[in-house]
Amino acid sequence: MRTWRVGTISMGIALLGLGICLLLSRMEKNDLVTVMKGWWPIIFIILGIEILVYVVLHRKSNSPIKYDLFSIFIVGMIGFVGVMILSLHSVGLLDKMEQFVFSNIRTVDLPTFSESVDDVERIVLETKEPLKIETTEEEKVVAFGTIRTVINDDSPIFQTANDYIQSKKIGDTLYVTVKEKPIIRYEYENQMDVTVFVPYDVPLEVNGNYQEITLRTRMMMSNWQFDQLSELNVVLSQNNDVTIIAEKVDRVNSESISWEIEPYDKDAPSDVDRPMKNVSYKSGKGTYHLFINDAESVEVVEQK
User: So where are the chain's domains?
Assistant: First the structure.
């Protein structure tokens, strides 16, 4: 008596169809994932048709039905891979995986930002990223830098300077904000390095949002204030005439700088946190003031 083995024909047609699709994909230069996304449902259609054909042709005979477990397993594995590809595609992970495989990590330049400070009496700078600040004799604020990121094509991640920094002039005050770098789930974390040049003779107020900031002052002829910093590194040139006053500071460097440190209140109860240090340092005559408030660490280096 002839035995019908359900699954054998399905596996044969499935493998034949898959081979044809892979051949065409190489000829058309399509990737395997694209082929599987559109082709895998046909496997279940073929297996269903085979079972229906058996029922129609052999319903009046006594031919026993027997399943080809190995063939059904192969067909099922192909189908399972197809379901997984569809699931990953539906939640967006498949596209991210494709981008990760076919992309590369590069360091690219940020567009240059420039804003005039004519009629500006004060600059307020806020940053959401680690920042380098330097002084300049030019009457404008200039920013540039680099970003290390995943590049999927030739288009830059930032088309204009406004994508990473913005400014707005209100009255005699120029407000400048360095934006947070793009954060995309399931991708490489971008690393942005930004340097901002500010005029040495315009008062500056900086809100660091507890980011690390490096300040290099070739010359400083105005009062500046820095608030909410994780770490502030100050490099003073020889011709600076500055008094640094830091309040609510956890740590200061003491190897090369002789700070005047306000002692802790020794009479404070032991179960109460002791107040943070208040420190000061004078460079030159100390005519201009650099105020630092609420910082975890302050390090000052004076160039000789």
Answer: 4-102, 104-302
